[in-house]
Write a structure and sequence with these properties.
By secondary structure, the chain is mainly alpha-helical. It is about 70% helix and about 0% strand.
């Protein structure tokens, strides 16, 4: 593989990782601010729960782990 191709692929991977990190951070901030949709997206997209936030909002986000067949 040529160096240019490698660098282009690496750049795309780095951009994707940065984008995902920023998205995850925004969702966490939104969930902590009381956004139930953000809390749900964290669970669906990253399998990440914030139990203290769920308790404060009185929301239970159902787990989708049993649905993977």
């Amino acid at each position: 593989m040529k160096t240019r191709e490698y660098l282009a692929i690496k750049r795309r991977i780095d951009d994707f990782e940065l984008s995902e990190s920023l998205t995850r951070t925004k969702l966490i901030q939104g969930a902590k601010a009381g956004d139930a949709a953000a809390l749900s997206q964290l669970q669906e997209r990253y399998c990440l729960r914030l139990p203290l936030v769920e308790e404060a909002l009185k929301i239970h986000v159902p787990s989708r782990r049993g649905n993977r067949n």
